[in-house]
Amino acid sequence: MRPMDPHFARYPFFDGARAAVGEADISPAALVVEDAPAVERGLERVERALMEGTVAAEEPRRWSDREELLSYPIARILVSLVDTPAAVDKYAAAEAATAHDRFRADFRSDDDGLQSTAARSVSLDDVLREFDLSGAVRPERPDDGRRRGSRDPTHYWVAVGAYLTLSTADWGERWRLVNRELATGEVRVTADELHRLLEEAVHRRVADGLPFEVRGSAAGEEIADALDDEVASLRDLLNDHDVTGRMEVEAVVPGLFPPCMKALVQRARGGESLPSHSEFSVVAFLVALGMDATEVATLLDAEDETAERIATRVEYLADADGAQFAPPSCASMQSYGDCVNRDERCETISHPLSYYTSAVRDAGDVRDWRETAAEGTSADDRT
Ligand code: SF4
């Protein structure tokens, strides 16, 4: 395989990355049969997509750029073999959410002129070009972000056709055209909203063609047989998710949260910027209790950028039919270092949601935080 463009490890859905895999001197099929490291990373990609809404590696230094790139087609094979709409949608959403985080980081480093990351970074212009949007998006002020040291644009104008193609009615009232500033065939959007549109472009590209038929040829049968164990473990994850994602308890009682979640809520309310996996854990837990983005942001005392990021997480955690990503199990919380202040009930359960269900049942009559929040009681008093 000739030297690889380092962008492709971070953005394996780019057209150029697909071409690079096509030109590789080893095919994904051969990797599977050989059980190459890219297969393990491909499995991790899908596992983390289903359980945590990200495809980022838990230990990024463990994988070379080549393994990262090749893990993408492997992940697509795995998702196709699992072959459920939920797996496809969660996987595509997680690839898109991860790309969204990376775009934002890259655009910032590009704007800051950080040379150390330049080789792996993409610019906004690169991404617009990748999705044929160069002619459809312009910064509000022509000079913004084009010169080193110039101000990062806060607003853009997007051609109405591109805007309508990429945004959907599910995103809420503020995305409806009647509620937007519109002039000469363009819609005014904030930088964050533009990034959301780009995330959708990634989602659609990743989902395109999934699931595909893997079996159907002798080579396909061989690949599918070689991935039997991985596919079985992914199906188990989805089944676990179905069980843990369905909460019988609907009341939100922060005082009965498991110790790990109380600690994360308190850290967030104390103004700490939580690591990504910790923020995911607590937001997934709260969403599993039926809380919406506003309630989660209120409980975590999140404002501005943090509230916006949380709203995006909530959006991905609650899918269209109400099924949810399960928050991490106790085992995962332990591996993150977020299992703290264990108590006696912790010895009887293996999942923070089970802890909460059991605590609420034992408590008998409880009052929902959403009712008391309106009366102005401090969440700190109740956690
Ligand atoms: S054992 Fe489970 S519920 Fe208890 S603190 Fe640890 S992660 Fe939370």
TrEMBL record:
Signal peptide: none annotated. CDD domains: PriL. [4Fe-4S] cluster binds at C260, C330, C339, C346. GO terms for molecular function: 4 iron, 4 sulfur cluster binding; DNA-directed RNA polymerase activity; metal ion binding. Binds 1 [4Fe-4S] cluster. InterPro entries: DNA_primase_C, DNA_primase_lsu_PriL. Keywords: 4Fe-4S, DNA replication, Iron, Iron-sulfur, Metal-binding, Primosome. Residues 252-368 form the DNA primase large subunit C-terminal domain. It comes from the Archaea. Belongs to the eukaryotic-type primase large subunit family. Heterodimer of a small subunit (PriS) and a large subunit (PriL). This is DNA primase large subunit PriL. It comes from Halogeometricum rufum.
